[in-house]
Amino acid sequence: MHFIPHLITLILCSLSAAIAIKNARSVTKCHDGSAIVLVLLMSLFQISTVATFVTLQFGWVLSGHGELIGKESQLGWIAYDYQNILFHICAGLTVNHWIKCNRC
């Protein structure tokens, strides 16, 4: 029963990665070079953030839920934090670019 939240997280992370792959494939048909670069960067950071999180979560589940983050995984969580913020920066820039292109 205590693995159900982790299974839900894995399903959501898989969905997020699938969306990123679909976006990366779709944007290559675009004629706007800035949009292509932004969406490809956003997709790259989205996939790498999800993969890092799932890897770290998997390690935590295997080591036991009651344990604190060990020194071995501290660098992994820092990498996750950096990837997460880079994804959000790219997502914000992409939305900003979309707004400018659509003259909202």
Mean pLDDT across every amino acid position: 80
Tally of DSSP β-strands: 0
Q: Which value, in Å, is the CA radius of gyration?
A: 17 Å
Unreliable stretches: none
Strand content: under 5%
Major β-sheet annotation: none
Outline type: elongated
Share of helix among residues? over 70%
Number of domains: 1
- Could you tell me how far the N terminus lies from the C terminus, measured between alpha carbons in angstroms? 47 Å
Total of DSSP H or I helical runs spanning 4+ residues:
3
Derived from helix and strand composition plus strand pairing, the structural class reads mainly alpha
Order of helices and strands: HHH
What features would you describe in this structure?
- With 104 residues, the chain is mostly helical.
- The protein has one domain (4-102).
- 84% of the residues lie in helices and 0% in strands.
- It contains 3 helices and no strands.
- The chain has helices spanning 4-27, 33-63, 71-102.
- The chain is elongated.
- The termini are far apart.
Give the tags.
104 residues; mainly alpha
Summarize the helices and strands and which ones pair or pack.
Blueprint lengths: L3 H24 L5 H31 L7 H32 L2
Task: Describe what is shown at a glance.
By secondary structure, the protein is mostly helical. It has 3 helices and no strands.
